[in-house]
């Protein structure tokens, strides 16, 4: 009887350990996918292949087409980021059940950065379309503030802030992964 009880306790501990290890792997995988997707979104160049399937309205001017092509390409990239965020959030919610506040803090920090990026992309494209319709250059003063968040550069405050947040998030779970 005692041997069966001991075996049951061992099995339960092993099951919990495996569950925690799987959760840690999934959340780190989600963080890395979000990191990669944000990195892709912030590439400051679009390629013809990214917008060649966009249907152009016959009434579009060339400057409107340029703005819409750029937006279309970035919206595709943002779609990949949304998918990565959904995977991350799913893993984070499952991990919150196991670890609580530790995961909540990591999750919140990444969500704040994601939301900031999405807000700035939305503002950038609204302004770019407005300027294109008015026949103005889309790279005026208003762009510079948004560009520092949107597009990666050699000297990049948002990139550094984002990189630090990702590093903190991964290290929060690395110790757990390495101990198993």
Give an account of the 3D structure.
This protein is mainly alpha-helical and 180 residues long. It has six helices and no strands. The protein is elongated. Helix 1 runs antiparallel to helix 3 (62-99) and helix 1 (2-41) runs antiparallel to helix 6 (157-179). Helix content is 83%, strand content 0%.
- Percent of residues in β-strands: under 5%
Q: Biggest β-sheet, characterized? A: none
Shape: elongated
Number of helices: 6
Summarize the structure.
This protein has helices spanning 2-41, 48-51, 62-99, 101-134, 141-150, 157-179. It has 180 residues and is mainly α.
List the helices and strands and how they pair.
Layout: H1 2-41, H2 48-51, H3 62-99, H4 101-134, H5 141-150, H6 157-179
Helix pairs in contact: 1-3, 1-6, 3-4, 4-5, 4-6
Essential attributes:
single chain; 180 residues; mainly alpha; 6 helices
